[in-house]
Specification:
The structure holds two protein chains of two kinds. Chain A is built from eight helices and 13 strands. Chain A is an alpha+beta fold. Chain A has a seven-stranded antiparallel sheet, sandwiched between helices. In chain A, strands 8-9-10-13-12-11 form a six-stranded antiparallel sheet, with helices on both faces. Helices cover 32% and strands 18% of the residues of chain B. Chain B contains ten helices and eight strands. In chain B, helix 6 links the parallel strand 2 and strand 3. In chain B, helix 4 crosses helix 6. The longest helix of chain B has 20 residues. Chain B starts with 7 loop residues before the first helix and ends in a 7-residue tail after the last strand. The chains are: A alpha+beta, B alpha/beta.
Chain lengths: 296, 297
C-alpha cells in the first residue's frame, strides 16, 4: 500500500514541476524585442482545460490533436499595430504537422520559416518539431510584416531540432496529390471540416486513428487513408462506413454517387482506403489499388 | 444506423431537410403544418456610403439605416416611438456584442443602439454592452431585455457565426454546445439568463467574411463591402437570410457551389428541433431597403 501512496504523491509533486519546466522552455523561445516591438505584459499560458478562455470554438480544433499547452505573448510599438505570438506545444511533431496541415492552403509559397510555413494578410504560421506557431499583426503594415517574419525566425531558430512527419504519409503515392490539399488528423470533426462525410462518426475515428486526406491532381478526387490500431477495428469501421454511406454497394465497395462521380472503399489489414469523387469507375479502382500496393 | 445519419450523399440528393426531420423524429406532415403557420419579417438595408474606402464607418449613415429598419419593422414613423414598442423605461438592457478581434461588432453600431435605448427612456446606468464577460456583468445578470448584435461570418466550427451563435457566451460551459458542429446552439437560448428576453437582433453585413481556413480563419481576401445590416426579431430568420447571402457570394466568388466547412446546420436545427424561429426562406418576408447594387438575394 505504501509504495502506491508514495507513487501517487510523487506524481502530484512531479507533474506540476514538469509542466512548469516545459512552460519555461517555451518562454525561452520568445524574443523580448524585435524591430522596436517590445514584449507587453506577462505571457499567458493555457492548457487543455483552459484553452476555451482564450478561444471558444477554435479550441476544439487543437483538442482533436495531442495539444498540451499554449503560450500567448503580445508585442507593442508606439503608433504601430499590436503583434500577437501564439506558441502551441502539440505534444509531438506529427501533431504539430497535423495542425499546420489543417490550416495550410492560404498561400501557395512557403515563408521559409520552420519545417513549413505560410504568411498571408498579417498572419504567419509554421511548425517545427512539436511546436505550431502563429505570429499575427492586428493590421498588416510593411513594418509589422517585417517584425512578424523576424519574430517567427527567432522562434524557429530557438527550436534546435526538426521532427518527423507522420509515418502514414509514406503510404501515399508520390506526386499524385496537390501538396496543400494534404491534411493529417485523428478525429472525424477535422475530416468533416475538409470533406464532409456524415454528421456522425461513421468511420469510428478517435485519438488512436491516424488519418490523411489528400486531393488528387489529375481528376480532383479525394483519397482518405485511415490507420487503425488493429485489423478488427479497421474491419468494423469498413462495415460502419458502408452501411451508413453506401448501403447500396455493400458487396461491391464501389458506387456511382449522386454527383455523377465514383466512391470506392477497401480494406488492407489495419488500413481503410477510400476514394471519393473519382471521375470514373476505372479511375476509382486504380487509385484504390495503387495505395493498396504500397501498403502490402 | 443509416436513418439516423446525415451523409454527404443526402446533401447531394438535396434531401437534407427531410433527413433532418426524420433524424429528429418529427413526422414530416406535422413539420409542414407547423411551418405553414410561421411568418417572420426580416429587414435588409444597405447604404453605399456606410463605409468609406479605408473601412471607416459613417455613424450618421448607420444611425439612419438602423432607424429605417426599426420603423419599417414595427410600422412606426418615428424611430424612438418604434423603440418604445419593445423597450420600456424600467427595462435593464444588455447589448450582446461580439469582440472577435478581426471582425468585431463595430463600436459605431453599439453606440447607435445604446442611444436609441436611452431615447426609449432607459437610464444609461441600466444599459450594458458586453460579449465575453456577460456572465459576470451585473447588467446582463439582471437584464430584462437583450439586444443581439454581431457581424456575420463563416465559422470554422459551426459553419457560420450569426445571431444564434452570438449567445454562446451566456453558456456556463460553451464546449457543451460544440459537438456535431454546434448543432444544438439554439439550446443556449433556453437558458434562464436569455430566454424570452431578446427584443431585437442586428446581423451586421458591412464587410462579411464569406470564407476562411483553419482556426484563425480570418483572411481579408474573403471579406467584401456588402454595406448592409439585417434587422429583425427572429434570430433564426436573420441567420437563414445571412447564410443565403454568404452562399450566393461564395458561388459568385468561386464559380461553383463550395460547401461551407462545416455545414451550418445549427440554423435549421434551431427551427426544426428547438422552435426558436424560422429557417425556411419561403416563410420569411424579406424587405429590402436602400442600395440595391449587387444585393445578391
Amino acid at each position: 500500500m505504501l509504495p502506491i501512496i508514495l507513487f501517487i504523491i510523487t506524481i502530484y509533486l512531479v507533474t506540476p514541476l514538469m509542466a512548469e519546466s516545459t512552460e519555461n522552455e517555451m518562454l525561452k523561445l520568445l524574443p523580448n524585442e524585435i524591430h522596436g516591438w517590445k514584449a507587453h505584459g506577462k505571457a499567458k499560458i493555457y492548457d487543455r482545460e483552459t484553452i476555451y478562455d482564450y478561444m471558444d470554438g477554435a479550441g476544439e480544433i487543437y483538442l482533436t490533436y495531442e495539444f498540451k499547452r499554449l503560450i500567448v505573448k503580445r508585442y507593442t510599438k508606439a503608433s504601430e499595430t499590436e503583434i500577437i505570438v501564439e506558441v502551441f506545444d502539440m505534444g509531438s511533431p506529427e501533431d504539430a504537422f497535423g495542425i499546420f496541415s489543417h490550416s495550410h492552403g492560404r498561400e501557395t509559397k512557403s515563408a521559409g520559416i520552420g519545417q513549413d510555413s505560410e504568411y498571408k494578410g498579417g498572419l504567419l504560421c509554421f511548425w517545427k518539431n512539436k511546436y505550431f506557431v502563429c505570429v499575427r499583426s492586428e493590421r498588416e503594415t510593411p513594418q509589422a510584416k517585417k517584425a512578424v517574419i523576424a519574430i517567427g525566425r527567432v522562434i524557429s531558430n530557438a527550436v534546435k531540432t526538426e521532427g518527423e512527419k507522420p509515418a502514414v504519409l509514406n503510404y501515399l503515392p508520390e506526386n499524385a496529390f496537390s501538396e496543400k490539399s494534404l491534411r493529417y488528423f485523428h478525429k472525424y470533426e477535422i475530416l468533416n471540416y475538409h470533406y464532409f462525410i456524415a454528421d456522425k462518426n461513421i468511420l469510428n475515428l478517435d485519438e488512436n486513428t491516424n488519418a490523411v486526406l489528400a486531393r488528387y491532381k489529375d481528376d480532383k478526387s479525394y483519397l482518405l487513408l485511415v490507420q487503425y490500431k488493429n485489423e478488427t477495428q479497421s474491419r468494423e469501421a469498413l462495415e460502419s462506413f458502408v452501411n451508413a454511406y453506401m448501403p447500396d454497394a455493400i458487396k461491391t465497395g464501389i458506387i456511382h454517387t449522386e454527383n455523377g462521380k465514383w466512391t470506392a472503399v477497401t480494406l488492407q489489414k489495419k488500413f481503410l482506403i477510400i476514394v471519393f469523387d473519382a471521375h470514373d469507375k476505372a479511375g476509382a479502382s486504380s487509385k484504390i489499388e495503387s495505395v493498396r500496393n504500397r501498403l502490402r | 444506423m443509416k436513418k439516423n445519419v446525415i451523409t454527404r450523399r443526402d446533401f447531394l440528393r438535396g434531401s437534407v431537410a427531410t433527413t433532418l426531420a426524420v433524424t429528429m423524429g418529427l413526422p414530416l406532415e406535422i413539420k409542414a403544418e407547423e411551418e405553414a403557420k410561421k411568418k417572420t419579417k426580416v429587414i435588409l438595408i444597405r447604404d453605399a456610403d456606410v463605409i468609406d474606402k479605408r473601412g471607416n464607418i459613417n455613424s450618421k449613415v448607420i444611425q439612419r439605416m438602423l432607424d429605417k429598419s426599426v420603423t419599417t419593422l414595427f410600422r412606426k414613423k418615428d424611430p424612438v416611438e418604434a423603440w418604445k414598442i419593445f423597450i420600456k423605461p424600467d427595462d435593464i438592457v444588455g447589448i450582446k456584442s461580439n469582440a472577435w478581434g478581426p471582425l468585431p461588432t463595430p463600436k459605431e453600431i453599439e453606440s447607435v443602439l445604446k442611444k436609441r435605448i436611452i431615447d426609449a427612456g432607459v437610464p444609461e446606468g441600466n444599459i450594458g454592452i458586453d460579449d465575453r464577460g456577460v456572465l459576470k456583468n451585473r447588467i446582463f445578470l439582471n437584464s430584462t431585455a437583450l439586444v443581439n448584435v454581431r457581424p456575420l461570418r463563416t465559422h470554422h466550427w459551426s459553419g457560420v457565426g450569426g445571431c444564434i451563435k452570438n449567445y454562446i457566451m451566456f453558456a456556463p460551459s460553451p464546449p457543451f454546445y460544440h459537438p456535431d458542429s454546434c448543432a444544438n446552439l439554439a439550446a443556449v437560448w433556453k437558458l434562464p439568463i436569455v430566454q424570452d428576453k431578446t427584443r431585437l437582433n442586428v446581423l451586421v453585413l458591412l464587410t462579411p467574411l464569406f470564407h476562411g481556413i483553419g482556426a484563425h480563419h480570418f483572411d481579408s481576401t474573403y471579406t467584401w463591402p456588402y454595406k448592409g445590416i439585417l434587422v429583425g426579431t427572429d434570430p433564426v430568420a436573420l441567420d437563414a437570410v445571412g447564410l443565403k447571402i454568404l452562399e450566393l457570394k461564395r458561388r459568385a466568388y468561386f464559380g461553383e457551389d463550395v460547401f461551407l466547412k462545416p455545414p451550418a446546420k445549427h440554423i435549421a436545427i434551431a427551427d426544426i428541433k428547438h422552435k426558436l424561429g424560422t429557417s425556411d426562406l419561403k416563410e420569411i418576408e424579406l424587405l429590402k431597403l436602400g442600395w440595391m447594387e449587387e444585393i445578391l438575394i
